[in-house]
Amino acid sequence: QICLSLVKLLFYLAHSPLGSIVLLDFQPRQFVMVDGNLKVTDMDDASTEELSCKEDDDCTLDFPTKSFPLKCSVVGKCEGINEKRNLFNAYRYFFTYLLPHSAPAALRPLLSDILNATGDLRYGINETLRAFEKVLHLYKSGLYLQKKPLLLKDYISLKGFRTVEGEDYKCWPSYSHLGCLLSIHSAEEAAAICNSQLQCQSFIITQHRTWTGRPLASFQSSWTDLIPDTNAVVYIKRSASSGERL
């Protein structure tokens, strides 16, 4: 969410009515999240000036660990230097820390492609935004899910119930530090996640959703202490419930 919002902001800056705007003091502390969107808190160091040049050798974009040769345009400006400076700063301050860690396994190669392409400045802001929107579409639609044996049949579902909230086993990347709370596309995906975790014996799906509209599922190591909840469904492994009275 943070990276996509940043890319949308940089897309606007690259195509603003004033021309391509560069953020000269590009630091994480210069941004804040407002209603799920990244905003710039300080525009004092923003500029529409692009570096003047006479030849291509005048257009080297330098960073502490990398340098990029750019082209000198016919009007004597280094082509796309403001856009590229913003994009590489997004890569080194945001993408490298946030992109590799929390996506479903099937989407990680696509995010690695974005990471590598922006790190080498092979992508401009237009290509980067398209790549992010493709990943978002796959994520929201569930098209990233690979066809696997149906596992939900191995679970008993009880509508109108959930387990008592409390500290349970933890997983990554959980929305809660008290247990294992993950976003899912469907109950079938939740069943696959539960099957992959040795501690998991049940999971609960409620009406709570993430910013992408995906429901949240809480994965539990037990299924006892059920309480009524009209907005929830608890799924219990048949193997865990055998011999027990529901």
From TrEMBL:
<dbReference type="InterPro" id="IPR042983">
    <property type="entry name" value="PKDCC"/>
</dbReference>
<keyword id="KW-0418">Kinase</keyword>
<feature type="signal peptide">
    <location>
        <begin position="1"/>
        <end position="19"/>
    </location>
</feature>
<dbReference type="Pfam" id="PF12260">
    <property type="entry name" value="PIP49_C"/>
</dbReference>
<keyword id="KW-0732">Signal</keyword>
<dbReference type="GO" id="GO:0005576">
    <property type="term" value="C:extracellular region"/>
</dbReference>
<dbReference type="GO" id="GO:0004715">
    <property type="term" value="F:non-membrane spanning protein tyrosine kinase activity"/>
</dbReference>
<feature type="domain" description="FAM69 protein-kinase">
    <location>
        <begin position="2"/>
        <end position="116"/>
    </location>
</feature>
<dbReference type="GO" id="GO:0001501">
    <property type="term" value="P:skeletal system development"/>
</dbReference>
<keyword id="KW-0808">Transferase</keyword>
<dbReference type="InterPro" id="IPR022049">
    <property type="entry name" value="FAM69_kinase_dom"/>
</dbReference>
<protein>
    <submittedName>
        <fullName>PKDCC kinase</fullName>
    </submittedName>
</protein>
